[in-house]
Amino acid sequence: MTLNRYFRNSCKILFLYEMDYNHKSIEQKWQAFWAENATFKTSESTQKPKYYVLDMFPYPSGAGLHVGHPLGYIASDIFSRYKRTKGFNVLHPMGYDSFGLPAEQYAIQTGQHPAITTEANINRYREQMDNIGFSFDWSREIRTSEPDYYKWTQWIFMQAFNAWYDKNEDRALPIEQLIAHFETKGSQGVHAESDEDILTFTAEEWLSFTEQDQQKELLKYRLAFLRESTVNWCAALGTVLANDEVINGLSERGGFPVEQKKMMQWSMRITAYADRLLRGLDTIDWPEPLIEMQRNWIGKSVGALVKFPVPQLDENIEVFTTRVDTIFGVSFVVLAPEHDLVGSLTTDAQRSEVETYIEKTSKKSELDRMADTKTVSGAFTGSYAKHPITGDDVQIWIADYVLAGYGTGAVMAVPSGDQRDYVFAKHFNLPIVAISDSQHIEEAADPNKDGLYINSGFINGMNYVEATDALIIKLSELGLGRAKVNFRMRDAIFGRQRYWGEPVPVFFKDGVPYLIKEEELPLLLPEVDKYLPTESGEPPLARAEGWKYQDQYEYELSTMPGWAGSSWYWFRYMDPQNRAAFASKDAVDYWKAVDLYIGGSEHATGHLLYSRFWNKILKDLGFHNEEEPFKKLINQGMIQGRSSFVYRLLDEEGRGTNTYVSLGLKDSYNTIPLHVDVNIVHNDILNTDKFKVSRPDYAEAEFILEDGKYICGTEVEKMSKSKFNVVNPDDIIALYGADTLRLYEMFLGPLEQAKPWNTNGIEGVYKFLKKVWRLFHDAEGNLNVSDEEPTKAEYKALHKIIKKAEDDIERFSFNTSVSAFMICVNELTDLKCNKKNILQDFVIVLSSYAPHITEELWSLLGNAAGSISYAAYPKFNPEYLIESEFAYPVSINGKMKMNLSLSLDLDQKAVEDTVLSNADVMRYLDSKAVKKMIFVKGKIINIVV
Ligand code: ANZ
Questions:
Q1: Which of 844, 876, 908 is the last residue of a domain?
Q2: Which of 42, 97, 679, 719 has the fewest C-beta atoms under 10 angstroms from its C-beta?
C-alpha cells in the first residue's frame, strides 16, 4: 500500500471514529504498515555505521508473556529506534529458544509432540510481541528447534570435537595438528589442556596403537569429549542437570531431588578457556555484580601442588594449597571421602569406622557439604604420611568438608591458619602447630600475610611472597611440589537424557565415538512413540525405531543441553538463511559483535559464560575476529506483581464466611486475607460485581464497605498465576494502547531496578498521549498546525527535550525521559504551541518511545515519504537554551521590594528607563527623587533614593 493511501485512510479513520486520540485504529494501522513495508528489514549493504541490539530470546512457554517480560524488550526497542534516528544501521532481531523441558514434560503428560506445543506457544508470543509494536527485523527470526538452525549447532559441536587447546599458543587448534605432532614426535612437547590421565608415548608407539586406542587418547584432548564424570542426576526429570540448574540440592525446574552419580557424559572443555574468560571480563562493559559472579564462578586460585609421601604404599597424597607458606603449621592431612587412596590407606582397625562415615556422607550433595560449616565430622584412616619438608609423621583423615572435585580432593591441614582445620583439630584433639613463632594462635585463625616468619625453618625472616617462592623452589627440588593455578570452574556437561533437544551428531564404532559427515547434517531428531526413557533406563532416543548410522552403528542417545542453541544464536541473526555456513564471513565481519545486550541477571553464569566460551572457540578456529560477543550488557530489573487482597470474615469457630471486610475496617473483625485477581481491582477498589461472578463460591458474597467502597489490601510479590497478580500486556493494550504500555513500563523506574507493577499511574501516561494528540488538533478534533515561526519560548521547550531525551537514552535512563516528555508537553500546551517546526521535531524525539502515535502525527504533518523510524534525530542547538530574560530582584535602598523580568540584552540606560517607568516601582518610590541606580546584569537592581 502506498503512503498516500495510508495518509488518506488515516484521515478517514479519524473522521469516521472520533476526533480524539484513538489508539486502537492508529496502532493497528501502523503495525500493518510496518509489516507490509518491511520497515525494519535490515541489510548489510549500506554506508551507515552498524549497531547491533540484542535481547535475550525467550523460551516460548505455555503461559504467554506477562507485563514483566517485555520490560527489557521495550528498552532495547527504544534504543534501536533511537539509534536509527541517529543514522545507524541497526540489527534488532528476535527469535525463540525453543528446545526445552516444559514442552517435553507436557508431551510426556499428553502425548502431544513438543514441536506442536512449541509452535502454538511461539504463535502466541509473536502475537503478543506484535501488539507492542516492536521494531524487530522478523525476516531474521530464528528458532533453535528448527533443523535449519540446529544443523549449525551440531556443526559447532563438530568443530569443538575436532579441536584441542594448545597452551603454548593459548588457543584452540584443529585436532589434525595434534595428530600430526603425535605421528612425528609422539606426545613430547605437547602442552595441551587435557584430561589428567594422558599417556606418554613416542611417535612409533603412537603409530603402533590401534585405531581404537588412538581415538580414546584423542578424546582426552578434544574440546568436546566423552568422559566419566560425577553428575547431578535428577531421577524425577530423568536427566542430568548443570550446577546452575540445581538449587539447594533440588532441581531448579520442579524442585525434585538431585543426587550425585557417575556417568559417561559428553562435556565441553571450558576450563581450557578459564583464564581467557577471566581476562575478557576486563574488556567488556557489563554490570559489576555480573562480572563479579563470573569471576567467582571461574574461581581462579594461585597456589601450589604439594606431595605428602606415604612410604608404606609407595604413593603420594597430593594436595592443592593457596598457602604453601603455612607448611610448617601442617599437623595432619585430610582427604575427601571419595578420594581414590582412601581404600588402600584405611587400616583394618579403622575400616568399619571409615566405611560408616563414607556411607553417611554419600547422601549429602556437594552444595550441602559446602554450605554446612557447623557440623564437624570425619574419620581417621589409621595411616600416616610424611611431611614433605620436616619428614614428620602426620595423620591421614577423611572428612566431607574436603570436596572430591576441587583441587586434588585433598588438603594439608593447618589448624593455626585455617578456620575449618582449626575446628576439626579441636574436635578430634589433633595437634595445633604455629606457622611461625611470631604467630599467636587464636580461634579465628587467619595467617598474617604482612609479617615476617620467625623461627620457621628456612623461611625464617622472610615475608609472605619470599616464603612462598622459596618453598616452591625447595619443593620442586625435592620433587614434591610445584606452582599451580587452580580454577573452581569445571568442564561443562554437554548432554541430557531427554528427547526435546539437538541430537549429538555422533555414532559409535567399537565403543569409540565418531562424527557423522558434515554433509549429513542436520542429524534430524527422530520420531519416538513416547517421550520417556526406556524400561532399561536408556534415553528416549533409544525408542526411535531403526535409528542407526549407516543402518548399523548406534547413534549417541543423549541430546544437547538447553544451553547449546543459545550459545551462538547472535551469529545466526547476522545471516539467518545461509545454507552453506552458520553465517557468511561478510555478515560476520560486518556485524562483528553485539553492541548492546539486554536481559535478565539469572543468566549470569549459564548462558553468558557458555556464549563467551563458544565465541572464543569459533574465533580460535578462524571463523570470526571478536574475542567477546557482547560488548555492553544491561540487566533489566524484575517487574514484581502487586497482589491484591480481600479479607474474609471468620465465624466464632474460625471458619470462613462469605462476608468480606474492606481494608480499613478489617482490624475490627476476625478475618483472613485472600488473594484476589488484580484484574478485577482498579486503583485498589474491588469491583464487587466482577468478584461475585469470578468464582461460584463468591456468588453470594457480601461486603462490609467503607465510604461505599471495598478497598483491597496490597502486597508486592513475585508475578505468578498462584498469586492472582499476573497482568497480561494484551489487556493493558486493549485499554490504553501499546504506546501507553511502552511509556508506562519505562516510567515505572530505572531499568535495572526491580519494581512492582502498579497500574495506578497508567492513566497519567495515557492522558499525556492525549495531550500530545491535542497539540496537533483543535477542539473539534481537526488537524490544526501552523507554519508560523515559533517563539523563543517554544524553541526553548523543544531544545530542552531534544537534549534531555538524548542524554538520558545514551545512559539508558529511560524513566527520566518519560517525565521530561510530560514536562515538555505541558509547556507546549501552556504556550498553546501548534507550530509545525516545533511539533515535527518533538514527534521524532518521542517516536522511539511511542512509535504508533508519532507515526500517525508525522504522516498528518504531511511527511508522506516514509516512516518516522528513519527520520533524523533533531539537532540540538544550545543557543535556544541561553536564558534571554532574568527576573531581577528590585530593591530600594537595599530593601527587596519586588521582582521584575527584563531581557538580558538591555544595557544600563534601557534598564533604568524601563525600571523607573514601571508602575509598581513608581508606587514604591512614592515620588521620591532617585539618586542613583545600581545595576548588575543578571543579578540585581538597587535604587538609591
Ligand atoms: C593450606 C591452607 C592454609 C589453606 C591456610 C588455606 C589457608 P581457594 O582459594 O578456594 O582455591 N582446599 C584445597 N582443596 C580443597 C578441597 N578439595 N576441598 C576443600 N578445601 C580445599 O582455596 C584453596 C584452599 O582451600 C587451599 O589452601 C586448601 O586449604 C583448601 F592458612 O591449604 B589451604
A1: 876
A2: 679
Has 721 been labeled as part of a binding site?
yes
Does 444 fall in a domain?
A: yes
Instruction: Look at the chain and report how many structural domains it folds into.
Output: 5
Cell numbers describing residue 247:
538449587
CA-based end-to-end distance of the chain: 76
Residue 308 DSSP SS3: strand
* Same-domain check for residues 625 and 654: no
Residue type, 920: D
Location of C-alpha cell 585433598: 410
Range of the domain at 906: 883-944
Mean pLDDT by 10 residues, the chain (945 residues): 45 49 96 96 94 96 88 98 98 96 87 94 96 98 98 98 98 98 97 94 98 97 91 81 78 84 90 97 97 96 96 95 94 95 96 94 77 88 96 96 92 92 94 79 63 82 91 96 93 92 97 97 96 85 96 96 97 98 97 97 92 98 98 95 95 93 96 94 94 93 96 92 89 96 96 89 95 94 94 95 97 96 97 96 98 97 88 96 85 92 86 92 92 91 94
Grid cell of 738 as nine digits:
501499546
Residue environment code for 757-770, b if the CB has 16+ CB neighbours within 10 A, otherwise e:
bbbeebeebbebbe
545 is a domain residue: no
**Which residue out of 302, 322, 339, 421 has the highest number of ligand 1 atoms within 8 Å of its CB and is therefore the one to mutate?**
322
278, three cell numbers:
577471566
Query: Of 856, 876, 896, which closes a domain?
Result: 876
Q: Do 710 and 679 share a structural domain?
A: yes
Q: What is the pTM of this model?
A: 0.85
Q: Which of 296, 306, 321, 328 to mutate to test the pocket of ligand 1 (most atoms within 8 A of CB)?
A: 321
- In this structure, what CATH number is given to the domain that contains residue 756? 1.10.730.10
For cell 628456612, what's the residue? 458
